[in-house]
Amino acid sequence: MESSALVLFFIVAIVLVGGAVLFSSYIPPKSYNPAKFEPYECGIPTIGGTWLQYTVGYYIFAIIYLIFDVETVFVYPWAVVMKSAGMRGLIEILIFFFILGLGLLYGWKKHALKWE
Amino acid sequence: MAFSIYDFTEFTKSIHEGLSSSLSPTMTTVVEWVIIGVLYILFVALFGLFLVYAERKVCAAIQQRVGPNRVGPWGFFQTIADFVKLLMKEIINPKGVDGFLYNVAPYIVIITVFIILSLIPFAPGLQAFDFDIGVFFVTAVSSIGVIGILLAGWSSNNKYSLIGGMRSGAQIISYELSIGLSIITMVIMSGTMQISGIINAQANGWFIFKGHIPAIIAFIVFIIASTAETNRGPFDLPEGESELTGGFHTEYSGIKFAFFFLAEYMNLFIVSAMATIIFLGGWMPLHFGEFNSFNAAMDVIPPIIWFFLKVCAIMLLIMWFKWTFPRLRVDQILTLEWKYLLPINLFNILLMTAVVLLGWHW
Fold first, then answer.
1. Which of B50, B64, B145, B299 is a Cys-bridge partner for B112, taking CB atoms 3.0 to 4.6 Å apart?
2. Where are the domains of chain B?
3. CATH class of the domain defined by A4-109
């Protein structure tokens, strides 16, 4: 099959989930109890809103990840043509890795990799 | 029909020709799509049920228990009973959830699972879709799954879910990097990102043997990173039941919870299949260069059995991790990735480059 397979598998997944959800929203028995719809908490009503600002630590890691992930994407094409690119490609990728390593080292020294 | 358990290329081709001789081209496509869709749904459902059962039995064996043993022979139908129970549960939208995002999250995780499954080759000719950036595409799509988990955590209006979703996000994106880099290490060796190309390059020996030291390092990093990526084992913070009750799927019940559960186990299958494809030769039988009689003996076992044997071995290893190691803290998880696995991986790529350029691989 060709790239239409992706469309097919997309549809198949939607049919699977949608069908099962449709089945369980009509067939199973239902009962009503207001306590059933409370958010789960350890036996007490939940206090305050949930959608608030969250620990900044996660965002710092997300930013570092973004930088490194984009640079990883650049390495993929080189990896494929590595043998034909030969020495010149190797020297260029060494410079690239050197800069990448410096970036990691900088983040390390700035305590960006430390969980606060 | 030319049916052979060793190579399905002829078989699928003869089905295609048989259908197109009696039906119009549009109808042929429709019938083929229905057949493939039904087969894959069956595979996902049955293999998911089998994996849940296997996990419980492995866990029981490690903890010196018996495990499920009441429903059917050796408790084999336990998970089927569980599935029917989950299917017959009422669907509840708890108070204050973000309705649209809450309902769309299970779709996202299942869609990513299915799209990756389309690229997994089970045997020669049994691959729905094969194209030139295969392994890269798999890593790209698998990181979309985290969006479903983040949405589930965020939209549930529950603090446990929110913490679980956030932890999961930080963990999956961090370890995504290690998976990508260890795949790059092996792409250097194979010279192609196409999945069939990677497997064919291993016809005279699996990469883990051919690439020796750098390949083994990459394999270990890949297994650790993929354990973290699937939220399993010692890295199960996002759903650590002793601290977060259920993590990002705390508020999900019934069949929607079942889909998160199914996606988790299918992700276990997917990472094991990727490890098998990249390091252990996919469906290639065990071959060693010049030992022709040994190679011929190994060829007797059909490729599809080889594939599932290898995948099950790696899945057993990952399950073993889960029940052996204690859970890590969030700072330990991020330290392991950023201060150990990432630098090791960067050096390993250079090592692999040296090995390939100097011709030290076998």
1. B145
2. 1-88, 94-357
3. mainly alpha
